Amino acid sequence: MKNIYQIQLGFIITAIALFIISYIPYNSSVRALENQQEIVVKISEVSCRSAKSVSGFYFFYNNKNYHVKILGKTCYKIHNGDNYKLLYDKKNDQFRDIEHALMIKNRLKYYIIFFLLTIIPYTFIYKILYK
After folding, report:
1. Which end of the chain is more exposed for a tag (fewer CB within 10 A), N or C?
2. Domain segments of the chain: what residues?
């Protein structure tokens, strides 16, 4: 019975860590989605990688160089010099890809569901079912 509590505690700690790690990009993505300040930028350099989370591109806007993460499937469709529509988060001076922002927003929902599943008292349910 002690092992079950340790496993459940491990799941709870993992769920809390995932939630905290995901909240910062989630917050910025939600702000960008709510403000809906769309800006079209010209891509200066595309950096597609095999790992989906590091794909993105570089561009210049207001004399500053920015990098924005995009989904892997989108990365292979764009090229240097293309125009691309992004959402701008003025508070953090960050740009977000619309699809990437929606993915991050949905990801946090899954982490919340995972967290709620970890706090279910499985030992109590097990005792009731198998008395």
Report:
1. C
2. 2-129
